[in-house]
Amino acid sequence: MISIQLAIMIPFIAALVIPLLYKKIPRIHVGWFVLIIPTVLFIALTRFIPSIAGGNTYINTVQWIPSYEINFTTYVDGLSIIFGLLITGIGSLVILYSIYYLSAKESLHHFYSYLLLFMGSMLGVVFSDNLMVLYVFWELTSISSFLLIAFWYHRKKSRYGAQKALLITFGGGIAMLTSFIMIYLMTATMSVREILSTIDPNHALFIPALVLLLIGAFTKSAQYPFHIWLPDAMEAPTPVSAYLHSATMVKAGIYLVARFTPVFGSSEIWFWLVSCIGLVTLFWGSFNAIRQIDLKALLAYSTISQLGLIMSLFGIGSIAHQLGAGENAILYTQASFAALFHLVNHSTFKGALFMVVGIVDHGVGTRDIRRLGGLMSFMPISFTIALIGSFSMAGLPPFNGFLSKEMFFEAVVNVSQSNLFTIHTFGLLFPIIAWIASVLTFVYCMIIVFKTFFGSYQPEKLEHEAHEAKIGMLIPPIILAVLIIGIFLFPNQLGDYLLRPGLASIFPSLKGMHEPISIWHGFTPALWMTIGVVVVGILIFRIQSRRKSLYIPPGKWTFDQLYNSALEQIELRGFKITSLYMTGSLRDYLVYIFLFFGIAVGGIFLLTDAFHFDFSSNAPISLYESLIVLTMMVAGIALIFAKSRITAILLNGVLGYSIALLFVLFRAPDLALTQLVVETVTTALFLLCFYFLPKREKENSPQKTKRFNVLVSILVGVIFVVVALSVQSGKLFESISAYFENAYELSGALNIVNAILGDFRAFDTMLEVIVLFIGGIGVYTLIKLRAKKEDENVENQ
Amino acid sequence: MIVIMLKISLTLFALAIFISLYRIIRGPSIPDRVIAMDMIGVNLISAIAAISILLNTKAYLEVILILGILAFISTIALSKFIERGVIIERKRDR
Fold this sequence. Notes:
By secondary structure, chain A is mainly α. Chain A contains 33 helices and two strands. Chain B has helices spanning 2-26, 30-54, 61-84. In chain B, helix 1 (2-26) runs antiparallel to helix 2 (30-54) and helix 2 packs antiparallel against helix 3. Chain A binds chain B through residues 622-624, 627-628, 630-631, 634-635, 638, 642, 644, 646-647, 650-651, 653-654, 657-658, 660-661, 664-665, 667, 669, 672-673, 676-677, 680, 683-684, 687-688, 690-691, and chain B through 7, 10-11, 13-15, 17-18, 21, 24-25, 27, 30, 33-34, 36-37, 40-41, 44, 47-48, 51-52, 55, 57, 59-60, 62-63, 66-67, 70, 73-74, 77-78, 81, 85-88.
């Protein structure tokens, strides 16, 4: 048996090789090479079945990031093998189909690379035991699905659909990641198997983790109200729709719910959320499906509806976790069993139906049911397959959908009689909604068959003459159709070998208890419900087909509308908010900075009561010192009100010289020297610029802004002064200047300041020199390297 | 005795600087302001000299010299600016 890690990696490696094969061997359709991979994997996985059915599981670990407990651990048990077989099995059929579906003119190397990428990541999702690895593969499915939906990227609708799918599934993916992190915080393990035994349902994070996990699962599986991306994903090529959006990717959410049922299933919220959202999706999907005029959109909504059915069954099945081992528990595990059974069934008939729709589309050039009709005599084989698929979906014997639909009815009838979780209050709603939804399902199944293949043939509305497809295109749906009937005839073989071990991994404590599936099980309520579905369904179909147009336009309040307007509003509001504060005016930005300084810094100091004043250690102030300071104050204030620029420059010079005098007073000769020189140079520079400056104009901003400016500047000044005084009053440690007083012994210098600059902390000096150097070069380049008059204005590009 | 005298003279120098500041602010013409600026420089020289006696140090002698040069240069620069509008003239042959 091959290692599962290898099985997951093979598609990825193949995705690398495929473009090479496409270029080097152009004569053979590259799909034939691709076909080998899922077929081999399928055969390899089937070899696990006997031992899995015997209760074995396989764990294999390859270390990835052991320090974070992130390891590529695979776990093969009943549940994952079901999905693994579906992915590889349907995958081979879809690739075979796509060889005939896609012409050699398409960019096939892209198509098959994406598809293999998807297949590998999907296998990774179902076989991963490590939460983070599961998440990585989960997002890879989203990305590859995005690439596949937009395969015909020159179409606007494809790009829209791809973006929508990506946004919604990524949103869910992030929710799931959050949930995984919460689970890790609760259990301190990344392994799904170990979570089961260590999770504590009373932990504060238990409910948030549960809800976020479900959001992840619901977005991926297109549950209400996150279902809106699936119909738009129908812009993908039909093999992609058949594979991703009916058989595999949308079941990733289902897989997640099934996998985490043992973890969260004992919670009441889990039951209510999963089963109610499932039922709502079931109803909403089937209701919308009958309104569609495009066959693929119809199938998309029917997929949504069927996924809702499976989801609600898993929700009902989770009750068994409350009951423990016993007769009652079996009653509810039967619901999960039905879910697994329907999961397999749905993959078969929905895959077949999508392929048939693709054949019809390929054959006559349209999928619009108003233009189709009377194709039965032209496409007999496709018709037969469509009939089998639709009737199986509608839940009629002798097809596998009948069995799972019966089990579904049984489950909802059972749950309505349960007395747990106060179900009895609304319990009756379960079978009623399920029954109505089944009637609608029956109606749209009739639409698929009768509107397409019966009625009058309208050649003038079709692009091509109707004809049967090539045999290669028909083989995959034929295989699926045979499976549909085969599963009906021998349901217990499938049940014993695949579904029972799958059930055992959903209910580890109730190992594989289930009743055998029987084709004829007596006159139970479920059977009467099915008969009712058929009768009422036919009636509705008759009434509805009399109407000219089947299509009921959607109302104003749809989730699509909500999604579109949300995107629009986010963009619009975001732009508005940004343009509200990003004014492009330096003055405003300075106001933000100063206000932040005033409010945040000053506010925090005030709140924490950090100000502390102590003037006892201050030196006395003499008269001449205060006179100098007074001069500076007057000069500073006059500077603000200076009318002409030259006055301002001179006042600035006064300030600089006074500072130099203060340096002298405070015994800093080096500073005073430097200050004098720098001040003179600065004044000269100001005068240099003067010539080039425009005439100074009076600032004519409104009075309010001026007052505000004054307030802000006073605020900043006060905070500076207060902080400085406060710092001065509270000296916590002795100054280190005593060390530098040994400058002569340490570095042979008499001037401490110069010793510090050139010896103790020469590194700073070096960098300051570099700053001056850069400044000089900057000035030189600015002056010398400006554009000449004839040159193009390169700076604004 | 000398300490008190020096302090009194320092106070007077500071007062002179303050009064020159009044001339800079009030104007009325630019030459008035430039002369006032020059006067501040000269007062500073004297004040620094007084301070270095007061502090009993020779460290400020360079400051005095530099200030003498700078006050002269800045006054020249300002005067030239008032007269020509620029400080450094471009080469004639361009």
